[in-house]
């Protein structure tokens, strides 16, 4: 033993630790060849579903539950235009959709498809007053209802909020998940980078047309470079023998790397009117010929936000409840990240049953 | 003067980068201060690594908020955009020479389609508003004149029925049949819902006109 002034440096313990770590690394190396096989088993969405409506590249899925439909009002999930929507039905035990389907909700999901160059001139108006309106109308017609419940996630939440403000008559309840509304805050890095002092959105969109998936992927990666480029791979390496961890990791990574381009004009409008001018909170956001007035939202609203969200900090979502006219509004802040709010194990056990109950009470 | 500005800018950026590395290194060095040799070395190493990465992460996040980084980001994005625009213009000229369609041409066509679509939709919207206005006018008009129309319809029906009866009575034996002028009127009165049909028919005829 080597003695120091106040503590002792245990050489034997160090030697033992080094040998253990070496053996552990050898075991991890042995697990590597099976990784490909595990990656092949990753499924994009787990709950059985059918396509019930199609328009251009858009598809509306209806999820098929095992039990009967117990609630008369259907639920339509609106996902962001960035990434694919199967994150809401990632895998067994980590599915937002399954929570609603199992509770007897007739659940639908809008899949925007993969936009190509022909979609570069699509605007927010096309999405809000076109696609979402048509989907909700279709679902209402199919279910014989006049109103539907709408759940929007991230950018899908912002679109759902605009839709509800413009078409309140067809929305019964609105649930928002990590939704950016007030972009005045510079708490999040994305908001700071998108500021007009640092980002010329017109020059960018005019050059690239649709905003490439790789650009968005890099931007998200740079939000937490050390976590994403060092900590994540290290953590994966250390847990490579843990099947459950690997399965979760592969599902998440498949989704995270499954980026899609964002139609150029929608990106321009979002960057300019939201990130740079913050028009939504001022009730000045133009959607085609209409102006979004948040005060026109009168239905019950449940605003869910994640306390550790780097992409959409709670400060960006919280102001909504004060800007709408709904008397029945609620905020739930949950200790999770942007994605963990939907698929995290804790969120699945604690948050989503509460959300399902909230919606069931207002059916 | 311009050269001085450029030099100043470069110096500030270099300083910001230097600060990033100095902060990261200081943070990493500090992370070892909590090291306790009496604990399990494996666990201690993991904890130290966590602290080191935390320190680097914080330095990077601070750096990405500095005006120098934001300035560099804006400049590089601007350069990329201008390079992209130049490349596009070059490709466009090449396509023009070769007589093929460039991306710009395709975008032009798409934009033209969008404009046509918008104009058609606007026109349809105007027509829809017009039709809705006409329908409202018609329904109010129908309500006003519903009774009149109903009366006229009934009168016409009665006339037709009595004509049929007259024809039938002429054909039949003259002695056997009693006169039945009031019966059809009763039938019409019993079929009151027919007014709706009448209204609908009236609306349809007007629409066609």
UniProtKB/TrEMBL annotation, chain A:
Question: What Pfam families does the record point to?
Answer: Abhydrolase_1
User: Could you provide one GO biological process annotation from this protein's UniProt record?
Assistant: poly-hydroxybutyrate biosynthetic process
State the Gene Ontology terms under molecular function: acyltransferase activity
* Keywords annotated in UniProt: Acyltransferase, PHB biosynthesis, Transferase
SUPFAM superfamilies membership: alpha/beta-Hydrolases
Q: In which pathway does it act?
A: Biopolymer metabolism; poly-(R)-3-hydroxybutanoate biosynthesis
UniProt entry tagged with the keyword Acyltransferase: yes
Start and end of every AB hydrolase-1 domain? 96-341
- Entry-linked NCBIfam families: PHA_synth_III_C
Q: What is this protein called?
A: Poly(3-hydroxyalkanoate) polymerase subunit PhaC
Q: Which organism is it from?
A: Pelagicoccus mobilis
Designated gene of the protein: phaC
UniProtKB/TrEMBL annotation, chain B:
Which residue ranges does the record annotate as region Disordered? 169-209
Coiled-coil residues are 117-151
Q: Where is the composition biased (Basic residues)?
A: 184-209
User: Which of UniProt's keywords are assigned here?
Assistant: Coiled coil
**Keyword set includes Coiled coil:** yes
Low complexity bias: start-end ranges:
170-183
Q: What is this protein called?
A: Poly(3-hydroxyalkanoate) polymerase subunit PhaE
């Amino acid at each position: 033993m080597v003695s120091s002034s106040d503590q002792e440096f245990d050489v034997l313990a160090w030697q033992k630790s080094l040998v253990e770590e070496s053996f552990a690394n050898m075991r991890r190396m042995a697990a590597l060849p099976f990784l490909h096989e595990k990656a092949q088993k990753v499924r994009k969405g787990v709950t059985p579903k059918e396509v019930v409506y199609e328009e251009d590249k858009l598809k509306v899925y209806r999820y098929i539950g095992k039990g009967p439909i117990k609630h008369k009002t259907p639920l339509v999930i609106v996902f962001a235009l960035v990434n694919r929507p199967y994150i809401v039905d990632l895998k067994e035990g980590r599915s937002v959709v399954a929570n609603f389907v199992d509770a007897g909700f007739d659940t639908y999901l809008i899949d925007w498809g993969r936009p190509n160059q022909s979609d570069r001139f699509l605007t927010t108006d096309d999405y809000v007053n076109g696609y979402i309106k048509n989907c909700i109308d279709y679902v209402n017609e199919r279910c014989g209802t006049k109103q539907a419940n709408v759940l929007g996630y991230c950018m899908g939440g912002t679109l759902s909020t605009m839709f509800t403000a413009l078409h309140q008559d067809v929305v019964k309840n609105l649930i928002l998940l990590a939704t950016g509304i007030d972009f005045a805050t510079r708490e999040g890095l994305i908001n700071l980078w998108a500021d007009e002092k640092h980002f010329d959105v017109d020059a960018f969109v005019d050059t690239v047309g649709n905003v490439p998936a790789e650009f968005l992927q890099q931007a998200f990666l740079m939000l937490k470079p050390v976590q994403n480029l060092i900590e994540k791979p290290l953590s994966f390496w250390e847990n490579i023998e843990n099947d459950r961890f690997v399965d979760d990791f592969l599902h998440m990574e498949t989704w995270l790397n499954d980026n899609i381009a964002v139609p150029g004009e929608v990106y321009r409008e979002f960057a300019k009117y939201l990130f740079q001018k913050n028009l939504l909170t001022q009730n000045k956001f133009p959607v085609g010929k209409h102006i979004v007035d948040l005060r026109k939202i009168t239905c019950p609203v449940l605003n869910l936000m994640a306390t550790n969200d780097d992409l959409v900090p709670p400060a960006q979502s919280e102001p909504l409840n004060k800007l709408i006219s709904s008397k029945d509004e609620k905020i739930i802040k949950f200790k999770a990240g942007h994605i963990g709010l939907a698929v995290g194990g804790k969120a699945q056990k604690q948050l989503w049953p509460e959300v399902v109950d909230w919606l069931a009470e207002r059916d | 003067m311009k050269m001085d500005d450029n030099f100043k800018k470069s110096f500030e950026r270099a300083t910001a980068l230097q600060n990033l590395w100095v902060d990261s290194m200081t943070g990493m060095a500090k992370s070892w201060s909590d090291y306790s040799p009496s604990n399990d070395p494996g666990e201690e190493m993991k904890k130290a690594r966590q602290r080191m990465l935390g320190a680097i992460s914080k330095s990077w996040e601070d750096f990405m908020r500095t005006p120098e980084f934001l300035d560099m980001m804006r400049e590089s994005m601007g350069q990329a955009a201008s390079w992209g625009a130049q490349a596009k213009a070059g490709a466009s000229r090449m396509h023009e020479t070769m007589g093929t369609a460039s991306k710009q041409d395709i975008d032009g066509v798409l934009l033209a389609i969008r404009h046509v679509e918008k104009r058609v939709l606007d026109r349809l919207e105007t027509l829809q508003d017009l039709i809705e206005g006409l329908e409202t006018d018609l329904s109010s008009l129908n309500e006003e004149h519903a009774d009149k129309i109903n009366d006229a319809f009934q009168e016409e029906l009665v006339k037709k029925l009595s004509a049929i009866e007259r024809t039938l009575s002429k054909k039949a034996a003259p002695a056997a049949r009693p006169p039945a002028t009031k019966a059809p009127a009763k039938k019409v009165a019993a079929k009151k819902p027919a007014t709706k049909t009448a209204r609908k028919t009236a609306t349809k005829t007007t629409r066609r006109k």
